[in-house]
Design brief:
Layout: E1 13-15, E2 21-23, E3 29-32, E4 40-44, E5 50-56, E6 59-66, E7 72-78, E8 81-87, E9 94-102, E10 109-120, E11 129-131, E12 133-137, E13 152-156, E14 170-173
Antiparallel strand pairs: 1-12, 2-5, 3-4, 4-11, 5-10, 6-9, 6-12, 7-8, 7-10, 13-14
């Protein structure tokens, strides 16, 4: 498989269900909503709940959801070091919002962790924090999307055969 270099127009996105992301078990809840990438995101509200993403690159953008109903505050860590807090409140719902972004990291392996504090903005209704996706910058490669339709060759019955009753069809595909 060929993998092209990443340009500014090609930033790999890691969905919230990617195996490189570790969630504190039984603390994150799937929230189905067509406004999220992939049709769903994960949300948590209990203090101490974490999610960690391991990535190779020079930057990361956390894509989530901002609103009154999900106005949680979270602590952020990069490579184990505390880097700050974010407030996910917004007066008007913002699906697929950039919650946090960092760039200029040394090229290589990094670990980004979000810790739910269980607290929320004074104008908000809950401490929910949402994870929709992470965009990784400077990873060097991104997989090519599979946009080529498959080739299918009918192997049985033979072309032009006269068919009656039940027929078994065989095909090869690539």
């Amino acid at each position: 498989m060929n993998t092209p270099s990443v340009s500014s127009a090609q930033i790999p996105s890691v969905q919230e269900t990617d195996p490189t992301i570790s969630y504190l078990a039984n603390q994150w809840y799937e929230i189905p909503d067509s406004r999220f990438s992939g049709g769903h995101a994960l949300g948590a509200f209990k203090a101490g709940t974490t999610v960690a993403v391991a990535f190779s690159g020079t930057g990361l953008t956390w894509i989530g959801y901002r609103c009154v109903c999900a106005a949680g505050i979270a602590r952020l860590y990069m490579d184990g070091a505390f880097i700050g807090t974010v407030d996910t409140y917004a007066a008007v719902p913002e699906p697929q919002a950039v919650i946090y972004s960092i760039d200029g990291l040394a090229a290589g392996e990094h670990h980004f962790t979000i810790e739910v504090t269980g607290t929320y903005h004074s104008a908000g209704d809950s401490a929910y924090v949402f994870v929709d996706a992470f965009d990784i910058e400077g990873s060097g490669t991104t997989p090519i999307s599979d946009t080529v339709p498959p080739e299918v060759n009918l192997t049985a019955p033979a072309a032009g055969a006269l068919l009656t009753g039940a027929v078994v069809v065989s095909a090869d595909g690539s």
